[in-house]
Amino acid sequence: xxxxxxxxxxxxxxxxxxxxxxxxxxxxxxxxxxxxxxxxxxxxxxxxxxxxxxxxxxxxxxxxxxxxxxxxxxxxxxxxxxxxxxxxxxxxxxxxxxxxxxxxxxxxxxxxxxxxxxxxxxxxxxxxxxxxxxxxxxxxxxxxxxxxxxxxxxxxxxxxxxxxxxxxxxxxxxxxxxxxxxxxxxxxxxxxxxxxxxxxxxxxxxxxxxxxxxxxxxxxxxxxxxxxxxxxxxxxxxxxxxxxxxxxxxxxxxxxxxxxxxxxxxxxxxxxxxxxxxxxxxxxxxxxxxxxxxxxxxxxxxxxxxxxxxxxxxxxxxxxxxxxxxxxxxxxxxxxxxxxxxxxxxxxxxxxxxxxxxxxxxxxxxxxxxxxxxxxxxxxxxxxxxxxxxxxxxxxxxxxxxxxxxxx
Length: 408
Hints:
Elements: E1 12-20, E2 39-45, E3 52-54, H1 60-63, H2 76-93, E4 101-104, H3 112-117, E5 122-125, H4 129-137, E6 142-143, H5 149-157, E7 162-168, H6 177-187, E8 188-199, H7 201-206, E9 219-220, H8 223-232, E10 235-243, E11 249-256, H9 266-278, H10 289-309, E12 314-317, H11 321-330, E13 340-341, E14 359-360, H12 362-368, E15 372-375, H13 381-387, E16 397-400, E17 406-407
Parallel strand pairs: 4-5, 4-7, 5-6, 7-8, 12-13, 12-15, 13-14, 15-16
Antiparallel strand pairs: 1-2, 2-3, 3-9, 8-11, 10-11, 16-17
Helix pairs in contact: 5-6
């Protein structure tokens, strides 16, 4: 296997989470008695460019199909984040009714709706037909396709180019990151701006966030490596923000290399230095992550077995992809966790892949009154524990599994 950026042969395993189905491949009642397809979930570190990457065992067109169940609009904190972003970008870059905003992986229009409300022209590019339909229902024009050089050239030939080209949590999802970034170069106006948000590899390692590894995430990115990838395609990073979202993310700002209208922020050099001092540009930093994950696995299994022996009932909240990684790596099934609650109707009355834990609505939680609720999307723990604070009325407690098990 070669690095998908620099083509160096990959020999160094970052972590092996054994085998797992695709994390969003929810099951119907009828499918419970059918075989499931499991794929290796092994992640490598390139010791040349330090791109951390999973082998593409699960083809992207099979993951992002017409029944994709992730809709961005079901998280109120994520919607608030999107709205703040539109305010910031509109003010900083002077966007108006003469501008063109294009979002890559626009999902259900969760973000573009806020630009649209300001009268700024928008276009979404979204490979999953059902989420794109939800965006179109909001009046947001959407192209149902995978983004890359081919689509960028097609859109450019029609006169469609971006003043602001954005993508939230998509850069890690693309199997061919070079083609994806090359496409951004093609579709960006001469003085246009690119912003991309993605989980920061430094936070993943330092805070033991191994559950953010799943087949939909092909790459795990440091600022050091992303800078190399963009520069190789003629794009220059001129600013970066460190964000609290998804357990710690980066928002990078890019422009054409030949665009001299934007100054390079001091943030760029500061973050490069921070990563270097942390060790991200050396091989030792990426060692021993397997052992850190094993510690979480043993703690969670011990907790669940202890509660089972004590006659306590355990449920979970948030049928998120990261939760499926955690449960499947730990080997947890529906005998230890009775059900999981999720606000998304597309997931309700289905079953989690591999673990076969049933997905229920919030009314079910109120009726069953479990002793413990494990918060699987720990990055939203403040939002979720506030939303479900009523479980304390019957003595219920929350369990946060990452970065180490906490009962609150």
